[in-house]
Structure formats: C-alpha cells, structure tokens
C-alpha cells in the first residue's frame, strides 16, 4: 500500500518551507494549496510500498509520526491523510496544486517496527442474568423539550419515541438503538445538543432490570462511547493547542456529555455484584473514565484483572486499575503495551502534545475495549 500525510499550516510561505523540508526528508512529491477552513494544506505523497499487514500498517503510521514531528516545527497540525493500493499512486501523481515540490528520494526512511503478538481474547459470560422481561415508562421523558433540541439530522423531536421503543422492548431493538445513537445522537463520533439529555434514560433502562444482559451491555457501551468523546476530542485537537495561550479544547457539547455520563456512574457501580462478567468488564471502563467515582471499585477491578491475567481483557482491566487509582504514568505504560498488539489503536494518541497521561491512557482503554466486544 501507499498513502498521503496531510498537514495544515498558517500560510503559503510556511507551506512552501514545510513542503521543501518534507521532500528533503524523503517524500517524492509534496503539494500545497489553500485550505477551505483557512491556512494552507500540505500533502506529502508516500508511495511506499508497505505490506498490507500489521507490520505495514505500523510502518506507515511510524512514518506519519515522523512527518508530523517535522510539521510541528513549522506550526503545522495533522489533517488526516489516506492509504490506498500502490496501483493508485500514479493517479495521485497527476494531482496538481499551486505549490509542488519534488524530492530526490523514492521514499522516506522507514523506522524499525516490532509487532507484539496479541494475548488471547476471552469470551466473557453474560450470565447469570437476573433481569425479568418487561417494559418501563421512562420517568420525566416528556419533561425534556426535545423539539427545541437538535441532533445530527435536525430536530430531536424523534428521540422520545425511539427511547420509548427501547423501553417497550421492540423486536427491532438493535436497529432502534443504532438509529438513536449511531445515527442521531453520536453520529460519526460528534455530540449534539440532545445527546446529554438522552443519556440518563439509558441508566433508567439498565436499573429497571427488564432488559436482558446482551442488550444491557449495549447500553453500557453507548455510555462508554458517549463519555469517551471528551478524551477523543482532547487527543484529536491537541495540535491546535500548541500555543500556550490556546487551551486544550473539545467539540461542542462533549464536556456536557462527559459530565452527564459521570453522573450516571455511581448508580451503575452499585450494580457491580449483580451484573455478569461481560458487563462488569464494560463497567470497569466507565469507572476508569471517571476515576473519582471509580476508585471505590478498584479492588474489584483488580480481582477481575487477576482472574483474566494473560488475556486481552485482563490487560485492559490492569489499565483500568491504574487509572482509577490515579497512577497515570503507569497507566500510560500499559496503554503503550496494548497499542503494540492492537492494530486499530493509534500510537500517535500517546504523543498528543499537552494532553495529560491519564486522558491518553483512558482514550486507549475506551477505544480498545470496543475491539474486544463481539
């Protein structure tokens, strides 16, 4: 495979200087053009080739991090990029831009990459399950002015109906839940005005004990995803805060969503003993996202980690223990080990400038645990 590495800088002069430096480093072709949102976009073609396997993905990611380190010296920030089959590199060579710099090298140097074998994954039981099938009327649902709130597709007036379908145990439960959160309230990882007000109703469904364990786990997971948007934003926007006068920031509504999820955690932690292992595992992640509440179950998480020692879930639980106990440096070290064997986690998260160790480690935990759920 091949790819591109994209960065945004302040103006044309800086873009020309960065393009020249990236070409000197080893990229065969670097383009720059005005960015629609301001500044200039610099695009470095990385023709590779890299093998389409774990080693290859690690190599191109390592080259991207080296390129980012160069871009940062010019005040640049990452703006994505792409990966594609090497046969498409010729098409990218036909792209044009106001600035074009050609390098004398065929490719940048490739850092040595060590791939660590992943521990085995354990299937965690969703039994015993003490829920009794039934329905529940969410308290206060009609007190929220949903029609005045918005989500990804406009008015949130449809939210109470979708929540009631879940509370009534609809046969299309998975589809409704995905529409509610995957499509409306957390579309493409963004938070919206109606996201936070909807979250306490998930807790109502959980504590009513009328939803079977598999579905309850989905509700817990959506709370993890919602609360995790805060950390995801802090890691993603870290390069915007390189100027000491510009604080770390999050996207709209994410702080409110994070706080609302935190408000649910004490009630949910009270369920530790009644939930089956497959849900306790997810509950440990919620505890680690909110260590002020989660510290009270630190010993229980540690005991579960010991039971699952040598497995992927055990590694994530060890990370959760360090987070709830406030040992962020040790948590970051464990997160680095996990990233060594989990392809879908990105090493650059651990290098986000200005982001506290605990937030980086918690982001790895929340994103990584989603990889273990079948």
Automatic annotation (TrEMBL):
Superkingdom of the organism of origin: Bacteria
Listed name of the protein: HEAT repeat-containing protein
């Amino acid at each position: 495979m091949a790819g591109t590495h994209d960065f945004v800088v302040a103006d044309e002069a800086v873009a020309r200087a960065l393009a020249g430096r990236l070409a000197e480093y080893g990229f065969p072709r670097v383009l720059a053009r005005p960015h629609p949102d301001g500044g200039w976009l610099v695009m470095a073609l990385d023709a590779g080739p890299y093998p389409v396997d774990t080693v290859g993905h690690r190599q191109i990611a390592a080259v991207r991090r080296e390129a980012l380190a160069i871009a940062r010296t010019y005040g640049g920030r990452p703006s994505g990029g792409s990966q594609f089959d090497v046969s498409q590199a010729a098409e990218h060579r036909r792209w044009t831009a106001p600035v074009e710099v050609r390098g004398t090298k065929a490719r940048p140097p490739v850092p040595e990459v060590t791939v660590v074998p992943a521990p085995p994954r354990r299937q965690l039981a969703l039994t015993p399950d003490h829920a009794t099938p039934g329905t529940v009327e969410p308290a206060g649902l009609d007190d929220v002015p949903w029609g005045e709130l918005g989500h990804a597709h406009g008015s949130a007036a449809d939210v109470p109906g979708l929540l009631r379908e879940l509370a009534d145990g609809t046969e299309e439960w998975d589809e409704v839940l995905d529409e509610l959160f995957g499509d409306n309230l957390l579309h493409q990882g963004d938070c919206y005005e109606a996201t936070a007000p909807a979250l306490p109703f998930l807790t109502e469904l959980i504590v009513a004990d009328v939803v079977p364990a598999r579905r309850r786990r989905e509700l817990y997971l959506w709370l993890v995803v919602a609360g995790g948007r805060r950390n995801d934003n802090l890691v993603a926007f870290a390069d915007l805060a390189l100027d000491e006068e510009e604080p770390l920031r999050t996207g709209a509504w994410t702080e409110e969503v994070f706080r609302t999820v935190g408000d649910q955690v004490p009630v949910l932690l009270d369920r530790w003993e009644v939930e089956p292992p497959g849900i306790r595992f997810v509950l440990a992640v919620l505890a680690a996202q909110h260590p002020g509440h989660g510290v009270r179950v630190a010993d229980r998480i540690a005991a579960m980690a010991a039971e699952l020692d040598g497995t992927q879930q055990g590694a994530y639980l060890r990370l959760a223990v360090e987070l709830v106990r406030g040992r962020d440096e040790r948590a970051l070290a464990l997160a680095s080990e996990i990233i060594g064997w989990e392809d879908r986690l990105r090493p650059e998260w651990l290098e986000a400038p200005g982001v506290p160790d605990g937030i980086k480690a918690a982001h790895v935990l929340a994103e990584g645990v989603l990889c273990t759920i079948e």
